[in-house]
Structures are given as structure tokens and as C-alpha cells.
Specification:
15 strands, globular, 234 residues, 6-stranded mixed β-sheet, 39% helix, 5-stranded parallel β-sheet
Length: 234
């Protein structure tokens, strides 16, 4: 991941070139500049991120909110994003606060880079250089997706992915690894553990939702202890 890079204009030119490289539907520079909301989202995020780093958190969050309203892409201003980042058909993309994204990464619509912890710590994914994440995929928690890895559409990833791997399915099963990743352990052997971790995350989410719903019911007049005591006598 790059520690530094060129100025804003140079990065915008890189972004346009990256779209032409990865999207065969791109036909002209004006078309890309004016009609690609995924790229607009990236540009607005860079402004919001600058404000965030200068401790202008309210303005940064406000700009992020406007960004989501205009583009359909939600990027927390604290997220760190590298060069030549492309969001294709970006509607519904969510990128959390402590996410770190390297260079030449590509996301498709509906991707979530989310957290699984409520603590103020690193709780969102790290995507290293050259990662591709397919439509609707969810990468959750402080996991690392290695260089050149590919996450298939709809996959749920809650553990580290080795460089060059291809991950598919709800349980995030690794089905392929490229040659430069031969030193890693074959993660298909631990698929059962990964399935269990996915279920644990889902159970935690259901539990949180149940708590929220119960609190909301109790907060409504007439739905407190009296309601329960009457129900018990039926």
C-alpha cells in the first residue's frame, strides 16, 4: 500500500485511466468524468478524508453524507484509500471508518467492508493492492485480504484471505490460490472453522437486533410490564 502519492489532479487523471482500463463500457473522457458516480464518490471521499485528518470531523461527516445522497456510495471519511481505486456500479457500497484499501483495488455494487466490533479500534477490513470484490460481497471485521485476491459475488468473508486467493460462497470458501501464494496453508482444510465463524457473526447480529426491538417495544406506552403481566394471565 502506498504511503504517499501524487497531487489531487494527477490522481484524478489516474482514476480516469483506471476506469478505461477496467470498464469496457467507457467510451470517452467526458462520459467517464460526468457519468460515473463511483468515481465521483471517490473524489468526494478524498476531500472528506482531508477534512477528517485535519480534525474537521463534522464537516467531513457532512460531506460524506452528501456523497452518499448523490452517489449511493457510503464511505466513512476516516477510511484510507489508495490510488487507482475503482467502484463499478457503486450503488449500495459501504466502506467503514477503519477500512484500509491499497492501490488498484476494484469493488462492484452492494459491497460492504464492515465491522464486527463496537470498540474504538481497528475493526474494518484491510484490502491490499490489486484486490477485486464482487457484487454483494461482505468483508467483515479486521481481516486482511491479500494482494491480488478475488472475492466472488455474494461471498461473506470474516477471516484473512491469502494473496492471490479466490474466495466464493456464503462461507467464504477459498477455491484457488495463485503460484506466489504457495507458502500459505491451504485454507480449504479449515472451511468448517470458517463456517462456524460466519454463523457466530450472524448470531451476534440477530442478538443485537432482538435487543434493539425489545427496547423499542418497552419504550412504547402500554407495552411495558403491564402488557406482559396481562399476557401471562391469558
Amino acid at each position: 500500500m502506498s504511503a504517499s502519492g501524487p497531487g489531487m489532479r494527477a490522481r484524478m487523471r489516474e482514476d480516469i485511466a483506471a476506469v478505461f482500463e477496467r470498464d469496457p463500457a467507457a467510451r470517452s473522457v467526458p462520459e467517464v468524468v460526468f457519468n460515473y458516480p463511483g468515481m465521483h464518490a471517490i473524489w468526494m471521499h478524498r476531500l472528506a478524508h482531508r477534512l477528517w485528518r485535519r480534525n474537521r470531523s463534522f464537516l467531513a461527516r457532512l460531506l460524506s453524507h452528501v456523497n452518499r445522497f448523490i452517489t449511493g456510495v457510503e464511505i466513512h471519511p476516516g477510511a484510507t484509500i489508495g490510488r487507482r481505486f475503482v467502484i463499478d456500479h457503486g450503488m449500495g457500497v459501504v466502506i467503514g471508518e477503519t477500512t484500509e484499501i491499497g492501490d488498484d483495488v476494484m469493488l462492484y455494487q452492494g459491497v460492504t467492508l464492515g465491522g464486527t466490533s463496537r470498540k474504538k479500534e481497528k475493526r474494518h477490513p484491510t484490502l491490499e493492492d490489486g484486490v477485486v470484490v464482487g457484487a454483494g460481497a461482505k468483508v467483515l471485521g479486521a481481516v486482511t485480504v491479500g494482494t491480488g485476491a478475488r472475492i466472488g459475488a455474494g461471498a461473506i468473508v470474516v477471516r484473512d484471505v491469502p494473496p492471490g486467493a479466490t474466495v466464493v460462497g456464503v462461507a467464504g470458501r477459498v477455491i484457488e490460490r495463485r503460484k506466489h501464494d504457495e507458502h500459505h496453508v491451504n485454507l480449504t482444510e479449515s472451511k468448517g472453522d470458517h463456517d462456524v465463524r460466519v454463523l457466530e457473526v450472524l448470531v451476534d447480529r440477530v442478538s443485537d437486533l432482538e435487543t434493539i426491538v425489545n427496547d423499542a417495544v418497552l419504550a412504547v406506552p402500554g407495552n411495558g410490564s403491564e402488557t406482559y403481566s396481562q399476557g401471562a394471565g391469558i
